[in-house]
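Lecture 7 notes: from sequence to structure.

We start with a single chain of 445 residues. Read the sequence below before looking at the structure.
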Amino acid sequence: MRGEEWLRRIAERVLAAARANDAEVVISAGEHALTRFAGSAIHQNVLEVGVEVRVRAAVGRRTGVAITDRLDDQSLQDVGRRAVESARFAPEDPDFLGLPAPQAVKRVSAHAPATAAYSPERRARDVNAICRQAIDRGLNASGAWSTGELERAVASSCGVWAYDARTSASLKTVMMGENSSGYAERTAVDATSIDLESAGREAIDRALRSRDPIHLDPGSYPVVLEPYAVGTMIDYLAYIGLGALPVQEGRSFMNGHFGERIVGENISLWDDGLDPSGVPMAFDWEGVPKKRVSFFDRGIARGVVYDSYTAGREGTESTGHALPAPNVYGPLPLNVFMAPGEADSAALLDGMHQGIWVTRFHYVNVVHPTKAILTGMTRDGTFLVERGEVTRPIHNLRFTQSVLEALANVEAIGRDPMLLQDELGGTSVPPLRLGQFQFTSATEF
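Now the structure, written as tokens:
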């Protein structure tokens, strides 16, 4: 880790070269290590070390962006000048009101030295233990075990300075049999806090239990969704409608419904970049401190996240959810939490005469954003529930379902949330029992 002062010196050199009305520098420096395995053997070990300097310059109401991964004086001067030149040739944007003013940023603990020091030899031993479990049970293990460390700084000619350092660790594994599969995932700031062998056993157990699946006709069924499946639904929900841009463009399911109950009264959903139980992130890519934002409070639609651009359109304040510029997606929530309930596994199944237990979804796509309708497939462990017990594995099913309608039919919420890795942050969700879920077709696997 290079340290805060090292990044500050780079930022100062770039800002000196970016002669514009306003300029902003985002520096990301770190390393990401990955051990990938398939066929119950390691086949790739990768270590990527790098730095990115991203400059946004403003000339009046025009903005331009330039990026470099070189730190010599000439490259740092060039990237500043290129950002200014790009801005001068960009079209004017009447909604651009300038870069954010500086605000105090609260430091959060998101760096684990044990993760930063995690060696490839240790990852190899971890993966070997998982693969040995699979081989002993006649299964093939595949997946990836990654660790990383990132320093990030934002500086601007407006006086913004924000710095943080964080680590991350993520395991994803699939166990394959002749006609079955199982999945497990773990993510954490501290790699040593992850029980990797337990994750391997979880995936193995699903693969063994899902052997020789039977056919089940598609239709509407009550379901239990494990956190993996719930997390996918919530991530898509956040993407299509919990940011200010889709609301301003009239394509969010939140439009016209703020203050109304649009999901079940037992559903509360929010974003909080300062919560240490997630993947903490104190500020966004504009150096604006993260604010806690409530999306659903006991089912009532409350708010969405903003960056400085979308906030300026409405005369409100950024909630600290800007993405790296240039950004066509608008602000996005990256640290989403769903309130857990009190149900254990038995309570989630209690009273379910015939239903389906779903491990996770894949091949998910958006069908109708303003109705929050998704389509996709079940995968890696789909089971029939009969008289309150998980009985037999079934072939995977395709679903076409409104997430809002699904969340309006939640009958029970698990008491144990799981933290799942998102591309830039994390999502913490519990398992859910839904009164109905629409499956539209079956598969042969």
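The chain has two domains: 4-199, 213-445. Keep this in mind for problem set 3.
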